[in-house]
User: Fold this.
Amino acid sequence: MTRSVPVRVHRDLARAITAIENGYASFGDTLATLPARENGKASFVVGVTGPPGAGKSTLVDRLIEKFRAGGETVAVIAVDPSSPFTHGAVLGDRVRMQRHSGDTGVFIRSMASRESGGGLAPTTHDATALAAHAGFDVILVETVGVGQVELEIVAVADVVAVVTVPALGDSVQTIKAGLTEIADLFVVNMADRPGASRTALDLKHMVRESGRDVAVLQTIASEGTGIDDVMVALTAARASESSNAGRAVRFEVVRNIRDAAVRRALAVLDAPRGRSVLERLRAGELTRLEAREELLVYALAEVINAD
Amino acid sequence: MPIKVLVAKPGLDGHDRGAKIVARALRDAGMEVVYTGLHQTPEMIVTAAVQEDVDVIGVSILSGAHMTVFPRIMKLLEERGVDDICVIGGGVIQENDVPKLKVLGVREIFDADATTQNLIDGIERVVAEFGRARKRTGAATPAS
Assistant:
């Protein structure tokens, strides 16, 4: 039987995500507003990342279809970029997934990236945890269109699929650091376009040389071609012991350090000594580098005092 | 926090240039705008609004079906236990239908002459007056 999730849980989960997104309530308090999952199973979290327009949302739409056919409930958290100027955002990932709208086994939530620069929103991690708590079997987390260094998805997902398209560059691109290092699976989408085999081959060479066991698959997501192969790879990754555990912990720690450092540095800026640094910088008494070092010293002193 | 708006395009309207212009203008006004594409049923609109937990549903309708679409949306929201999402509308809507829609609970109707600035001001006013900030007092309420 194809499982579904009560509509009331959809509403409560949606409200819980808003509460943490907007800081109305702590994660712990929010968790208490949701019924605990019944089957005791852990959710399987799949990250889908890659450059803008590569077909991430269309691939997610196809994966929803496959996981539902297997009787599992699916939550999608899809992140789109916020304007750094107005803080506004257009969240358009649902457009590709609307055919699942009438299926109560599917929950789709868009999030604006807000002030985060890692390809996710600051609270995507928490939203994913809430969806897991609400009992969704599979959670698909789609990042904003990323470049090479927005890698925060690693801290959230059990398995990361990097979606790319043909002819974004030559084989040198495949040996650069960053995005290519976090893939548990490469998907070369739009494989009917020229250069697809070349792109796949470059990636396969890179994978072989790095000694990692990462599948490189070709899909035409808009037509549903190659999706079964993606499912086979995801199922295999799900069955194996999570290779991602170590990376995820490290990323989570780094993220927490950075968040805390930024928060405290900003607090220093609002304090008298921070304002004095800014004034001396403006007056030309300090160089930018000196100002930064002085502010860091104050911020770290705050950390030490606070802990 | 940014106001979150669902820009909804129900029924048979054949293009969404206007809806996209509205989405862009609201974005530039600092709002988070969910856009779901053409040919949405009231069920799809309400499902998206609930899952996205938007502050406002903005329905753009030019086909003349507003006296069927709005009552259905209001009824579905009620059925799903949602009373803190504001519904507004715009497009080609006869003047004498406006009071009937307001009785249903539609908070504001914008006619075809409304500028994007009118929309932005209207949404901010509706949220200030009827929005959830007034209904949700700073914390999520535990499930009963």
Summary: The longest helix of chain A spans residues 245-270. Chain A has eleven helices and eight strands.
